[in-house]
Design a protein that fits this description.
single chain, 11 strands, about 260 residues, Rossmann fold, 5-stranded parallel beta sheet, 4-stranded mixed beta sheet
Length: about 260
């Protein structure tokens, strides 16, 4: 249950359309659900209160879960809600999930699976996802799919790195139009500072593990972004497109009402 559903339930109680006992029973379903494994020990505790507290159901991190684990967790979330996001979803577990949930949508490049049920709503404009190079697109796609799952309508501005600065300047209007920007870059990570110097909006920098030699698997752009001279740049962890997309959505939607 999310905030909109809770408010609708309370309004129905006030109008006399739903009894107090029925409302209490509905709220009782918000308690966590423990899913036991084959040996009886719990392998997951699904937080059904998450959407009400945070605006979106618990997100499932795919690695480390067996195909059976992933399917059972996804089904439990969807049994009490209409949205699902699974990140880093690959291999046999991903195949099992897609077979078990027919309306699931696979986003191969983002390594994500989403489910959205109920009436389709128009996404909120205001989020832009910017990449330095094509090698950074998988991380950017994770950010884009995450933001989209949370109700945004993100704009993708890809392959506009500082090695050809004219490409970025050609998209200056689209960059300036965004309320919040996710900037994804490997190598030396310079793009985040450049974008930060062009806008008066928050920039969420995502270092990627794309790079040569002593690039150190993303540590080089991570340190460069942390030391950015642009004061509107903040940084998430290496390859964390999910975290960047989630925070971008929170910024774009504004304070909870």
């Amino acid at each position: 249950m999310d905030r909109a559903r809770l408010l609708a339930l309370l309004a129905s109680v006030r109008a006399g359309d739903v009894g107090v006992d029925d409302a209490a029973a509905a709220l009782a379903h918000l308690s966590p659900a423990s899913l036991p494994g084959a040996d009886g020990a719990p392998v997951a505790v699904v937080d059904h209160h998450r959407a009400l507290r945070c605006g979106f159901p618990e997100v499932v991190y795919g690695p480390g879960k067996t195909p059976d684990d992933l399917v059972r967790i996804a089904r439990e979330i969807l049994a009490r809600g209409d949205r699902l996001l699974v990140t880093r979803c690959e291999g046999p577990a991903c195949a099992a999930l897609l077979a078990a949930v027919p309306d699931a949508v696979h986003h191969p490049r983002a390594r994500a699976v989403t489910v959205t049920r109920g009436p389709a709503a128009a996404g909120r404009p205001g989020v832009a996802i910017v990449t330095a190079g094509t090698a950074d697109v998988p991380v950017a796609e994770e950010a884009r799919v995450t933001a989209e799952a949370l109700g945004e309508a993100p704009v993708a501005i890809y392959d506009v790195g500082v090695a050809g600065l004219h490409r970025l300047l050609a998209r200056h209007d689209a960059i300036r139009a965004a309320n919040v920007l996710v900037v994804v870059a490997g190598m030396e990570g310079a793009l985040a500072s450049v974008v930060g110097g062009l806008v008066d909006r928050p920039v969420i920098a995502v270092p990627t593990s794309a790079g040569y030699g002593l690039h150190l698997g993303g540590v080089t752009p991570l340190l460069a972004m942390l030391n950015s001279c642009a004061p509107n740049v903040t940084v998430v962890n290496v390859d964390n497109g999910f975290g960047a997309g989630y925070v971008a959505s929170l910024v774009n939607r504004g304070p909870a009402r």
